[in-house]
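Q&A log
Question type: sequence-to-structure
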Amino acid sequence: MSGDEDDVVPVKESYYLFGLLKARKLPCECKIYEGIGHGFTRNGKLDPITAFLAQGKILTFFRENLAPKAGADPAKGK
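Response status: OK
Response body:
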């Protein structure tokens, strides 16, 4: 996730990382928010709606990709 107006971490870095992960067939998503700067800001102020929506996408991604699979044995790392 990135904002197209992020002046700390340029949006091209998000595209680059997404390409690397995709090339390695790892779970990944890329969402670029228009008009959003670093830290989910718009015009220098926090954009709470965008931050909230991004947080939901992040949590969903974590649940889908990092949650233990049914029947997995955590002691064996599987």
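Response note: The two ends are 28 Å apart (CA to CA).
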